[in-house]
Amino acid sequence: MESMTGFGSSIFQGENFQIHCQAKSINHRYLEVTLRIPRRYSSLEERIRKRVLELFERGKIEIQIKIYGFPKEVKDIAFDLELARKIKFNLETLKATLNLGGEITLAEILSFREIVLLEEKEEDLESLWIELEPSLEEALAELKNSRLREGALLRGYIEKFLEELSGVAKKIEALKEKVREENLKKMKERIERNLSELSSQLDEGRFYQEVALFLDRLDFTEELDRFKVHLQEMQNLLDEKASGKRLDFLCQELYREINTLSNKAQSAEISQLAVIAKDLIEKIREQVQNVV
């Protein structure tokens, strides 16, 4: 079992620079990846996302990469020759107009910074990946391990609550016959109180049919059986990958079954057990919200 919450970081030392990589994740319905990376590595964005998708299935994951120091020079120097010619021509014209002596020097022309052009070299993607990959992989591996450790803790909590829910189901099972007899007794008493008033108009066949339907409505055997099946299914899902959404769905089903069961039973004892069961289901759901 894997949690959606975790953190990982790493530092890679290059020849003249360091790369710091942090990877953290929190709960999210789907997998969402956010990248905060230097412009130097922007061309690798899709490759980074693909790697995250290979390792993770759910969660809001943020990758932050920082670079310290100076990687190898990636700029070319060029000159705007046309602009330089115009500057030289205009300077010579100005000198002639002002009757100034001397030649136009290169230093004078270079003082006009507009003629110097710095161009970024387009680096090879594989070279950039070799530079970035060690730090990224280490941070992602640490994030994965962190999520698995947290997942093991979540599993322990969920198994404990499932065991307690199973105990509640057994107590309800033990009360089933007693509750049935109590409801039958209550019904018999109500019938006896009103039988004298109804006797003149009573259709005996219809009367016993209604009694049978009433008792059937009080029978919560099916709900209890489904409740136990859901518990076993949840236990089985703990061994499967990416089971968070299905576990959350089963929590809803457990709540629905125990609620219907409690309403049918019309028993104070079972109502109290249902309250305990609902509390346990809610505790499981809190943990399940963080499961991948």
* SSE string: EEEHEEHHEHHHHH
Total individual domains: 3
| Shape field | rod-shaped
Average of the residue pLDDT scores: 88
The proportion of strand residues reads 15-25%
| Biggest sheet, spatial arrangement of strands | 1-2-4-3
Distance between the termini: 8 Å
Please describe the biggest sheet, giving its number of strands, its sense, and whether it closes into a barrel.
4 strands, mixed
Protein name: YicC family protein
Family: Belongs to the YicC/YloC family.
Pfam families: YicC-like_C (PF08340), YicC-like_N (PF03755)
Cofactor: a divalent metal cation
Describe, in plain words, how this protein is organized in 3D.
This protein has 292 residues and is of the alpha+beta class. It has three domains: 92 residues, Ribosomal Protein S5, domain 2; 46 residues, no CATH class; 139 residues, no CATH class. 62% of the residues lie in helices and 15% in strands. A four-stranded mixed beta sheet has the order 1-2-4-3. It has a two-stranded antiparallel ribbon with strand order 5-6. Strand 3, helix 1 and strand 4 form a beta-alpha-beta unit.
Task: Describe the structure concisely for a colleague.
With 292 residues, this protein is an alpha+beta fold. It has helices spanning 45-55, 81-97, 106-110, 125-198, 204-218, 221-237, 244-265, 268-288; strands at residues 6-13, 17-26, 31-36, 59-69, 75-79, 116-120.
Search tags:
292 residues, alpha+beta, Ribosomal Protein S5, domain 2, 4-stranded mixed sheet, two-stranded antiparallel sheet, YicC/YloC-like, hydrolase activity, YicC-like_N, coiled coil
